[in-house]
From TrEMBL:
Protein name as it appears in the record: Pimeloyl-ACP methyl ester carboxylesterase
GO molecular function: catalytic activity
Species for this entry: Lentzea flaviverrucosa
AB hydrolase-1 domain segment(s): 38-257
InterPro entries: AB_hydrolase_1, AB_hydrolase_fold, Sec-Metab_Biosynth_Hydrolase
Gene3D superfamilies associated with the record: alpha/beta hydrolase
Signal peptide bounds: 1-31
Pfam families hit by this protein: Abhydrolase_6
Keyword terms, alphabetized: Signal
Length: 264
């Protein structure tokens, strides 16, 4: 009888241990599943490193953050590149777009249920048929055109970048000069056709969106940013006064705060 009681006790202890492991694994899976991957898409005249201050802060809070290399060749083809990266990510995603990157996340096909939120950071949020250049010119205030340096491409289109001597005043006036010198030297050009390509059906029509507006933006006038946020039915719109177009570099805390709200 004593031996049988000992075997039953041992069996119950083993079952409890297995159940404990199962519960531990399940709770970890749930906890992991609660935090979406933050996918960040840069715009023209920048690269993935422009998100570094934002990524650093998100990682400190336990988020996985990925800066996708945006080809800057055309809205539809750039969105296809983004879709390929999204397809490789397990679990929910918060998409964050800066500048022209906003047009790209607007055209992402992997919308639901994987993409739970869209965050626009001084970004374009076009409606169907609209182009980024059209929206930038909708209200006065953009001085981008006079700062551009064109390079003719073999296909008849043109690559556009900002003249290094004008980069800081146009793109990142609130970023230290030594840092903007590096940003100017490593900027990636955008094809002119991309800025003039009509957008497809907008993801913001069916996916919740959040907007951060840069108050001193010389690329996309503040009025244009506010117009797009209102039209998209933004869940929350935050204006960062005196922030340049490079607001993710100069004011990363404000960007992170909004991304965290969208990630809840």
């Amino acid at each position: 009888m004593h031996r049988r009681k000992h075997r039953i006790t041992a069996l119950l202890a083993a079952l409890a241990a297995v159940a404990g492991l199962a519960l531990f694994g399940t709770s970890n899976a749930v906890a992991t599943g609660q935090k979406p991957t933050i996918v960040l898409v840069h715009g023209a005249f920048a690269d993935g490193s422009s998100w570094n201050p934002v990524i650093e802060r998100l990682q400190r809070r336990g988020f996985t953050a990925v800066a996708v290399a945006n080809p800057l060749r055309g809205v539809a083809s750039d969105a296809e590149t983004l879709d390929a990266h999204l397809a490789a990510i397990d679990g929910p995603v918060v998409l964050v777009g800066h500048s022209y990157g906003g047009a790209v996340i607007t055209n992402a096909k992997a919308r639901s249920p994987k993409v739970k939120a869209l965050v626009y950071v001084a970004a374009f949020a076009p409606a169907e048929g609209e182009a980024a250049a059209q929206l930038a010119a909708k209200y006065p205030g953009s001085t981008l055109g006079e700062t551009l340096a064109p390079v003719a491409l073999s296909d008849g289109s043109t690559d556009l970048s900002i003249k290094p001597s004008l980069f800081r005043q146009q793109f990142a006036a609130d970023v230290p000069a030594r840092q903007t010198a590096l940003m100017a030297a490593t900027q990636r050009p955008i094809r002119d056709a991309a800025l003039n390509e009509a957008s497809g059906a907008p993801a913001w029509a069916s996916t919740p969106s959040w907007f951060l507006l840069a108050g001193a933006d010389k690329n996309i006038p503040l009025r244009a940013q506010r117009f797009m946020a209102d039209r998209a039915g933004s869940r929350a719109t935050v204006t960062v006064e005196k922030a340049s177009h490079a607001v993710a570099v100069s004011r990363p805390d404000a960007v992170v705060d909004l991304v965290l709200r969208a990630a809840r």
